[in-house]
Amino acid sequence: MKILVVGGDGYLGWPQAMYLSRRGHDVTVLDNLAHRRWDLECGTDSLVPIADLRVRAQAWLEISGKTIDLRLGDVTDFAMVEQTVSALKPDAIVHFGEQPSAPYSMIDRAHAVYTQLNNITGTLNLLYAIKEHRPDCHLVKLGTMGEYGTPNIDIEEGFIEISHNGRRDRLPFPKQPGSFYHLSKVHDSHNILFACRTWGLRSTDLNQGIVYGVETDEAALDARLATRFDYDAIWGTVLNRFCVQALVGGRLTVYGRGGQTRGFINIRDTMRCIELALLNPPRAGEYRVFNQFTEQFSVAALAAMVQRAAGKKGINVEIAHRENPRVEAQSHYYNARHAKLVDLGLEPHRLTEAFVESILARIEPLRPRVNPAILEPLVRWGATRNRAGYLHAKDKASIAADERFSAGAPSGAAPLHADGRVR
Amino acid sequence: MKILVVGGDGYLGWPQAMYLSRRGHDVTVLDNLAHRRWDLECGTDSLVPIADLRVRAQAWLEISGKTIDLRLGDVTDFAMVEQTVSALKPDAIVHFGEQPSAPYSMIDRAHAVYTQLNNITGTLNLLYAIKEHRPDCHLVKLGTMGEYGTPNIDIEEGFIEISHNGRRDRLPFPKQPGSFYHLSKVHDSHNILFACRTWGLRSTDLNQGIVYGVETDEAALDARLATRFDYDAIWGTVLNRFCVQALVGGRLTVYGRGGQTRGFINIRDTMRCIELALLNPPRAGEYRVFNQFTEQFSVAALAAMVQRAAGKKGINVEIAHRENPRVEAQSHYYNARHAKLVDLGLEPHRLTEAFVESILARIEPLRPRVNPAILEPLVRWGATRNRAGYLHAKDKASIAADERFSAGAPSGAAPLHADGRVR
C-alpha cells in the first residue's frame, strides 16, 4: 500500500512510518518540523534524544534496507499538498500533522487562533487534494477522545442512536471539548464528515486516548530511530510527567482532586490500530469513528500506580495535590466504548505497574537531561495572556535563527522579549 | 444600552443598527465593507439600490436626529478589535460580521478555507477582546438553522436531553451542516460554548432561519436607508429568487424535488428577536441558543405561494424543476422547535400570499436592474473548482482597483482571468 504519513517526524508519526515500512508498505513522510520549532519556542525538549529526520530515514535504510521518502513541507500550503498528492497518488494518508497540545493552544489568543487555523487548513487542504487527485484515497485522521468531553452518559464511537419524541436517528455524538486544541479536532471531524457525505470520500477518524510508552519494535532497533518522550507541562502527558517527577524529586503533583478520568493506549497499540484501519478501509462515502484507547484511568489512580512502581525500585514517592490550571470536571462519570478496533483484531497491551517500572528503567539513565523548570504548569485556562515560554538567555540565538524560518507561525505570535521569555 | 453591531453594513446589520438606535440605544457599527467587495468579485448586486455606509449614517442623523457611530475595520484584525472593545466597553455586541453564503464557500478550496478562517478568527477575536476588556458584555451571535441539517428527529433549541443506557444528560444538539459556510457556524458555536463555560462569558447564539422581506419601519423612511435585496444564486435566498423569476420570465426553478424544508422569518421579526435577546441577557457563564425562525416551508410550497401571489397580479408563472446543485436531502422529516423567543414576547409576522404580493410590488419598479445571468446556479457542491464569477469585461477595472485593498481575502483566491471570470 502506498501511504503518506503527514506529521511523520512526530512522537507517533515517526514510529508509525517505520512500522508500516517494515511491513512492506511504500511510505512517504511529510512534515514541517513544527514540533522541533515549538520546542525551541517553549524551551522544551524530548527526554529521549531524537535524531534529525534525515538521520532517522538514513538509519532506517541502513538497518532495515527499506526507504522512507521524505518531503519537508507544511500542509497549510495547498500548492505543496496538491503536488504531493497528485505525484504520489497514495492509497492512504495518515494525518498526524497538527498542533497537538491543549496547553499550547491556551497560551494566548495568537496560539489559540494559530492552532485552529493551522489544524483546520491542513485538513481542508488534504480533503480537497484527495477529492481532486485521488478520490479513493483513505484518510486516516488522528482525532482525540477529548472531543467528547465528559458527558454523563456512555460515550459511543462517533455516532449515537437517539430516540426523541417518538422518532429515532443515528446522529454524530455531541461534542464538549475542553480547549481550543480539542475544539480544532471537533472542527476537523465535522469538516471530514461533510466531505465524505458530499464528495464520497472515505475516512477513519481515530479518537485517540492518551498514548504512553516510548518503545516500539522498530524504535528500539537503534538510538537514531528513537521517538520522543515529552514530560513537560505543554507537550508531555500526565503519565510521563509523573514518571519524571518520581525520578527527580519523588513528588507527583495531581491537579485538583485527580478524579479526571481519561482513556489510555500503549504506543504499540496505536501502531497496530492504524494498521488495522488501513487494512480495513471504509467504503466510498463512509466516515467512521473508532475510539482508539484500551483502558481508562483516573489521574489519581495513575499517580498511585506510579507510586507503587517507583516503590518497587526503592524510590519513595509522595502524592501532592495542587490547583488545577485547567477548567474541567474533577470528578465525573466516564464510560467510553472502544469495541471497533478490538473487533478488527486489536489485542491490547495493558498499563500495569510492571510497564511503569519499564518506563522508569528506560528514562533513569536520562535523568541528567531533565529540566525540572518545564514541569511547572504555566498555562492557566482562565488566563488569556500566559507567560509560557521557558527560555533561558542562552537559547536566544537559536530562537532568533528559528524565527527566520517560521513562516508558518501566526504573525505576531510569541514575540521574544528582553527577558528571553515568550509573552 | 451601548451596542456594537459588527457587520452593520449588511442586509440585517444595517436595519438592526437603525432599529436599536431609534429605541434609544447607543449604537456603533463596525464593518469591513466585505459584502460590497464580494459583489464586485461575483458580479452581483442588491436589487434595491443601497447607499454607502457613510451616506446611510448621515441620512439616519438627518432623519432621526440620532447618531450611529461608524468604525471601518475587519474583525480578523485583533489589534483593531481590542482597541474598539476596550475604548467602547459595549454592554452587548451583535455579531453579523461573517461571510454568510453557502454557495460562496463552496466555489473552491480558497473560498472554503477563507470562509472558515475568516468566520472563526473574527469570533475568536471578539471572545478574547470581551474576556480581556469587557467580560460582562453579552455576545449576540448570528448562527443558522442550517447548523442542524435535517435530522430525522425534532430539532431542539441548541441542546437536547439524551437518555442512554439508563443515564441522562443535556448535551449540545448534534450538528449536520450542509456546506463549508454552515460548518463555520458550527465551529463558532462550539468555540463560543467553550468560552462561556471556561471564562464565564455570556452569549446568545441565534440559529436563524432564512430571512425574507426588505422593509423595516426605519429602512422605509428614506431611500438612503434601504437595505439589500439579494436574488442571485450566491447571496440571494430562494424566496427572493422566485419573486424575481416571477417578474422577469414567469418561470420559477425549483432545485430537485423541492421537498427541502427550512425555517423562515420576516426581517421585522429578526429585528425584534435581537432586541428581545439584548433586553433579556443570559447570566454570566451561560451559553444559550434560540432557534430564530417563525414558520417552516418546503421549497415547493414557497414556489406555489409565489405562483399564486403573482397570479393575483396577473402574472402567469410556471414552476420548473432542475438538477439540484447542492448535495442535500430533497425530501425529509423536519420539525424544529422555536419557542424561546415567543416566550420572551415575539409576535411573529406570517409569510402569506399577501406578503409575497407586497414584495412583488416593491421590486416591480426595479425590474430594469435585474441581471438574469446571476440567477443561474454556477456553484455545484460536487465540484471543487466552480467558475462562479459573473464578471463582464466592463467590470474589470473596478475589480482590479478592489483587489488592491483586499488584504483580508485569501491569497490566491479568485484570480482574474482574461475572460473576466473568477476561477
Describe this structure in words.
Chain A is an alpha/beta fold and 423 residues long. Chain A is 36% helix and 17% strand. Chain A contains 13 helices and 14 strands. In chain A, helix 1 links the parallel strand 1 and strand 2. In chain A, helix 8 packs parallel to helix 10 and helix 10 packs across helix 12. Chain A is globular, with a radius of gyration of 21 Å. The N and C termini of chain A lie far apart (45 Å). Chains A and B meet through helix 6, strand 6, strand 7 and helix 7 of A and helix 6, strand 6, strand 7 and helix 7 of B.
- Percent in helix of chain A: 25-40%
How large is the count of helical segments of chain A? 13
**Total number of beta strands of chain A:** 14
Q: Let me know the largest β-sheet of chain A.
A: 7 strands, parallel
Short summary of the structure?
With 423 residues, chain A is α/β, with parallel strands linked by helices.
Properties at a glance:
alpha/beta; disordered C terminus; seven-stranded parallel beta sheet; 423 residues; 13 helices; homodimer; three-stranded mixed beta sheet
